[in-house]
Each structure stands twice: as structure tokens, then as C-alpha cells.
Amino acid sequence: MLSLHPRSFVFSFAGAAVFALATVVSSFAIRWVIDNVILPRFEDGQVAVGTFFAGIGMIIGIGLVRAIGVVFRRAFASAGMWRVAETYTNQVLDRLVRQPVSWHRRYQDGDLVARAGVDTETTVSVIAPIPFATSTVLMIVISTIWLLIIDIPLGIVALIVFPLVIATNVVYERSVSQYYTRAQEQLGDFSAAVHESFEGVQVIKAYCAEERETMRLTELAGRVRASRVEAIGRRSWFDALTDMIPAIANIVLVLLGAARVESGNVTIGEFTSVIFLFTLLVLPLRLIGYALSELPRSMAAWIRIQAVVTEVVLDDPTMEIGTADTGLGIQLTGVSFNHEGSGLAALHDIDLALSLGKITALVGSTGCGKSTLTDVVVGLVPATSGIVALAPGARSIVFQEAFLIAGTVRDNVAFGNHADDDDVWAALHLAAADDFVCALPLGLDTVVGERGISLSGGQRQRVALARALVRHPSILVLDDTTSALDPTTEEAILSRLRSSLESTVLMVASRPSTIALADDVVFMSAGRVVAHGTHVELLERESGYREIVEAFEADRAASS
Predict the structure, then answer these.
(1) CA–CA separation, 510 vs 79, rounded Å?
(2) 11: domain range?
(3) For 19, phi and psi rounded to 5 degrees?
(4) Which of 61, 111, 146, 559 has its CA 20 to 30 A from that of 495?
(5) Beta-carbon neighbour count of residue 392 at 10 Å?
(6) Over the Cα atoms of the chain, what is R_g?
């Protein structure tokens, strides 16, 4: 992780090293001041002015150096940490964007969001303490040598205590890592469930399932809590040990140091510097413990990030789409599609040829494969077998559930396309959306709210349609896009599309009025194309088609 932005961490480690050296030197300064300023004042009643100011200057100077080291250590460590977080987030988002739809269908959206957000923050949480932790190791090495130089018995205590604290950290890290790994995975599941719940909040409220959904999320949250509580329980023992070991060591040093002073083996200044230095090391020792305690959780999150970042980008299925014969907009030959990981076939050997510039209605019962066929046509999922050939040019699809971003109307129509206002208004006109957009308070600059909440269902569908049309597609797929529109508006849109565009339009239709507006109809059943012709022709010769259209009409009559 540190190698991603080495410059920041070089400065941070340099500042930490300066702080470590200044901390050890500060104990020498304390020893010098006690032996040359404080004791002579008590014993002789006076001390030289130069010696007094030299002691003050030494303490102030070392304090300033330590302060500079702290500033460099903290500032550059924090900057480096958030730069690493930014890099990981961008890596995850880049990989998510590059993966095709077929890859995304394997994962829950909430879990992927957690990997780009929560997991990234958790991964870098261990970075900030690392420079201080390494400076602590440097302090321990130098301090041990310094203590051995002052007095071997006191140095031996340090030689025993420091490795003991480090060993405690290592044992803790190994014992707790499994719980943090489990908790991080469960947190991803919980995030996915919450995201799913927010997505389906209207369904939940419509079926009065609030209590059921609350219980489901409570159960998932309880799993995260159980794993975290187990990990924190072990961490509490670890924190107690890291507090207890230095405290006991301090008592031993005081007792041993008093005996050594009484025997004349060390001076009071040397003894005080030892206690002072050991006291200064207690907090850094705890920081090593904190860094190691964060490491299991950070590693668990890092592994989840790497699972996304290192996964091979699947081939974009749109690259397999060929060019249709002259005069044809869509040409399918022997196209089949099987859902990944199962033998369930959604499409079976479909042969279909749609003329360029025509509007074709795709009709069939629920689950017959209409939406799957539209996904294959625009390249969202690859055909398992067969050949998909399309007319040259852009391909656009508009879904029944229109997705709008929380921006302006202009943002939603342009949506990454370099379109000026004239192009946007032209697309809105084709989608019969220009009238209501003109009536909005700020026109194109009106913010529609998250998912277009300020617009009605029909308005959202028309803005989404304009977003597809602004690209001047040669292939336009409408997956029941006009279901929320009244027949008059729907007829106006299709009429404008027919007269103003040269697109081949394939629209999933479940309303008789929509079907009647199409140039021809493709009738599907059980993943197969049963018949292809005009609406009138299919009504005459296909009993299955006639039955489903009559069922559509009955449903409309019952709901009106």
C-alpha cells in the first residue's frame, strides 16, 4: 500500500525517525539537567547561569525538533493514507465500470458499493499509525542500547519487556484475524441487503413488509455485531496486557533503580532518565498494539478489494456483434442464451431479420425471454451461441424502470454525451418531453432529485427515452418503455420516431394500443420466436398470439 504514494510516506517516516531520535535524546537532556542543574542547586545552593540556560536551551530545542517531527509524521502520513484510499477507490470503480453486465449480475450491488467505500476506508485505517509504529521500533532499539550503556541490569529489564510486548501483539493479531475477516464479509452482506432494501422501498411499503424487512436486516446486523463483539472481547484482553506489562516493568525499574542508586552504580540523573525514557515509550508501545490490532480488519478489507481489482476483465460481449446485411437493422441467426451457472435456456435457436428503419413490437407472455432477447441485441449479455448482426451505428436501450441521476434534466439527457442544448431539446421533442420540461421552474437546469423523484413515472420514462435518442442510435430498444404513458402520448412518440429517425426500433409491448402502432410484430413463447408478421396477420393465423392480445385487452379493461 505504501508503495502507491512513496513520497508522502518517505517524508512521514523521516519525521517519525527525527521524533524517535529526539525522544531518546530528551532522556539524555533530562539526565544532564538533573546532574548539572538541579542536584548542584540543592547540594551547593547555586548553579552557573550559563549551565542553567544551556539546560533550558537543550530542553526547548529538543522539544521543537520533536514537534517538527510530529508535524511531518502526522501530516504526510494522513495525506498518504487518503491518497492510497483514493487510489484503491479509483481502482475498484475502474474495474467495476470495465466489467460487462454479465459480470455484475453475479454480485449484489450493495456488496460492490461496500468494497469501493467501507472496505477502502477500513483498508487504509492501518496506514496512519505505521510511521509512528516504525519510529517506536527505532526508539526501542536505541533505548535498549542506551539503557545498557547507562546500566546493564536496567538494560536487561528493557530487553525482556520490549520483546514481551511485541510477542503479545503478534499472538493477538493471529487470534483475532479470523473474527475481523468474518465481520468484514458479513458487513458486505449487510450493506448489500440495505442497498436492496432501499431499492425496493416502494415494494416493501406496498406489501406492508416493513416488519419483515426490519427483522431481516436486524438478523444480518446481529451477525456483524456478534463477530465484532468477539473480536473486541479479545482486543480488551490485549489492551489490558499492553497496559499491564509496561506498568509492571516501571515498578521493577523503580525498585531496581533505587537499589542501583543506593549502591552508587548509577546517578540520580541516570536513574531519572531511564524512568523518563521508559515512560515515554509506553504510549508508542500501545500504538504498535493499535496498529497490529487494526491489521486483521485492514487485511480482511484489502482482500475483498483485491478480489475485485485483480479479477480479469471479461470480454465485452458487444465486440462479438457483427454487421447486418444491407437493408436489415437487426439480424439474428441461431441465437441461444443460457443463464450462467445453470442449464436453463432463456432463448432457443432464434432466427430473426428486422428491416432497417422499422418499428417492431416484441410480444409474449411473462418470462418468455423478451427482455433477455433485447439484452442480447444491445450487447448487455452475450449470446451463448449463434450470430448477432446489427446495422452500423450506436445502440441504445430504455428500460421500463427509468433510472435518473440526481442532477438536472440536461445532465440526465446528455449523460456523458457531448450534446449541446439544441441536441438535448431535439431529443426531448422526439420523446414528447419538451412541453413539460419547458414548464419546469428552471427548464433544462431543473434538478430532478435522486432517481428523478420530483417527476412522475411517465415523465421519467420520457427523459430516459430522450437520453437514448440524443445519441442518434441506429438500433433503439424499448423494454416496455412507454408503459406509464397514455395512448395519445405514446402514439405521438412513435410517430415522431418513425418520421424523424432512421433507427430500427424493437419495443417490448404489453398494451394492444402499442402493438397496433408497430410496423410488424414478433411473437415469442418459451424462449422461441413463434411468428413474425403484422399485427393483423398474427391475429388471423396465430391462436396463441390472439389469446395473449385478448388477455392484454381484458387486463386493461379490468384496471380502467
Answers:
(1) 56
(2) 2-309
(3) -60, -45
(4) 559
(5) 8
(6) 36
Alpha-helix residue ranges (DSSP H) falling in 310-415: 370-378, 409-414
The mean of the pLDDT values for the chain is: 80
Q: What's the one-letter identity of residue 343?
A: G
| Burial (CB count <10 Å: 0-12, 13-18, 19+), residue 418 | exposed
- Return d(Cα 316, Cα 93) in angstroms, integer: 17
Alpha-carbon gap, residue 478 to 466, rounded angstroms: 12
Domain boundary among 309, 330, 354: 309
| Cell 446495422 sits on residue | 391
Domain co-membership, 80 together with 104: yes
Of the candidates 385, 345, 386, the residue with the CA atom closest to the CA atom of residue 369: 345
Domain's final residue, options 279, 309, 339: 309
Dihedral sign of CA atoms 424, 425, 431, 435 in order: positive
Element (H, E) at 506: strand 504-508
Digit-coded pLDDT (tens) for 39-54: 887 777 777 778 888 8
Angle between helices 268-309 and 49-98 (to 10 degrees): 10
Closest CA to 276 of 41, 29, 61: 29
Number of domains the chain contains = 2
In 3D, which of 445, 439, 444 has the Cα closest to residue 427?
A: 444
* 515 close to 489: Cβ distance less than 8 angstroms: no
In a domain, 314, yes or no: no
Is 159 a member of any domain?
yes
Question: Rounded to whole angstroms, how far apart are CA atoms 36 and 57?
Answer: 14
Checking if the pLDDT of 215 tops 50, the result is: yes
pTM: 0.60
